[in-house]
## 1
Amino acid sequence: MAVTAVESEGEIEEYHSILKAAGDRLPKPQGWKILIAVPKAVDKTDGGIYKPNQVLQYEEVGSIVGLVVKLGDLAYKDRNKFPGGKWCHQGDYIIMRSYSGTRIQVGDQEFRLINDDTVEAVVDDPRGVMKIL
């Protein structure tokens, strides 16, 4: 079974509007932490069957894709650990370890505070990026 994080261009646009709506209510990551916005799970299968709420929640909690919202002041500053510099920047879509970070919610949007070394990869287009279960 695969879990799709972001399916369409409309979801990406909606994603950015959610961040804008959260505005000043977003926490400011400290130290080596990174604030990540987690996409909402897709509510239908490819065949058009609606998923139960429990499945949607499982998919969001276990998401591996996120949008970098803010970086803490010490993120990627350790030159011994990150000799090549930053692994990601604000506005990048990343792949992170499943179930990582501290989960928080602002309005209807889930965010996570993750460690800078939790980032596995940067993706240009998160649509269709899937976690294999």
## 2
Amino acid sequence: MSRRSTLVLALLAPLATTMLVVAPAHADPVGAQGALPLTVTCDNGAVYDVISNGNGNWTPAHDLDSTSTLVPVSFGETTFTVTDASGTVLDSETTPAGTKGQSGKQVRGTAISCSYTGGGMDPESGMVFTLSGTVEGFITPAR
């Protein structure tokens, strides 16, 4: 694995294992440094376009179309892939599942299971990164 791929994966790992908490739509950090756009599809029938922006593995994500917040409590495996501008895979890695403390054992009335995908491109190198995985959590405010 190249040094650049290692750096990209190191920077993306906390973002990918990040998920969902949202503030009001006017406060969505779309343009913030490190903001990661994700599409989240949940078992409640909803598809959320979210921005995850923060430090650490358990950062919630902001729903861009409402004031809902999606809060993660456990992640399934997450797969990161880095390709060059021509689509050649430079690196791919799958991180193991994880749960935030004892929160995975709690049952909430608003609990949801979701899958997510996201990614971006480094404008300088043309490298493209993608990530995908599953997450369990809850939505605020409760509906």
## 3
Amino acid sequence: MRIFVLSLVAALVLGSGAAVAQAGSTLAAAQAGSTPAAAGAGSPGGDAASGVRIVAQAGTPVPSPMPSPVSIIHIKNFAYVPDSVTIPVGSTVKFVEDDETPHTVTASDGSFDSGNLNQKQSWTHLFTKAGTYAYYCAYHTYMKGKIVIVP
């Protein structure tokens, strides 16, 4: 029974259906009176002391989702700092309002608009398509910036 429990633990750790199948055959061999070697221990991938044979099923690792890169643009002294950034598709830009005067981040083509941003507020936007995005402050139209999204 000890062999079965150890094999089951190995199956859970490996997350492998092959290890579960091995656990079942190890239990059957143990119940039939076989030695650990007959159940596969002591062979490559096995452990003669515990009677556990670890079998891993080959597969493609599943990548974990990566957070999108974040660029930070500060709004201070009536300017966007920096006023131009180039980032890859799927990136996020965070605008941080450092001025005492309210500002906006408004796309020239109308594709995004932060609305009113007061001091210490921030706003983020995820860019999902390649292209060049010009933006300005709706209250102070001389404040301008550009974001270039590359594939």
## 4
Amino acid sequence: MHSNLSTYLLNIKTSKVIQGLKFPLSLFVVYALFHILYFSIADKTLAQIYHAIVVTPSASVINFILPSEQVIVSQNALISSRAHLEVVRGCDGIGVMMLIVSAILVFSTSLKHKITGLVSGVGLVYVLNLIRIIGLYFVVVFQRDWFLPIHSYFAPTLIILLCSLFFMHWAFMTSANESH
């Protein structure tokens, strides 16, 4: 009797451990697959994408805020008489976007909630990254020595924190909506 009880309890503990690891392991696998796909895209192709959806809108906003900058776009770079800022692989917000998309895809919820989360999450990352790039342009222009710490530490950490808060809020709201 004692060994049957021990086996039963061990199976329950093992089952809970497996359940507890399901989300992070699934997240890791999906993120890794996105990462492999991302790095299979040629740099030249990414430069064209950056030009269209990151650099051109950033230049438009900068020129709207401060027309005297007269920022032009050249391939994947913002260029003016006071700054040259290139958007390259790793500075495009895709890493965080892949992370939030992976988390939403592996989270156990309805397709409707996943689609809402994906659209909202991708939109959030896109807007935050545009704000980051525009902000970095102004840092280069007005406080060049702040560029490295803001670019390497502050901005990425802030974006990851905001996206984590978004995911927690979305997951909580999704779970609350499905329990009703």
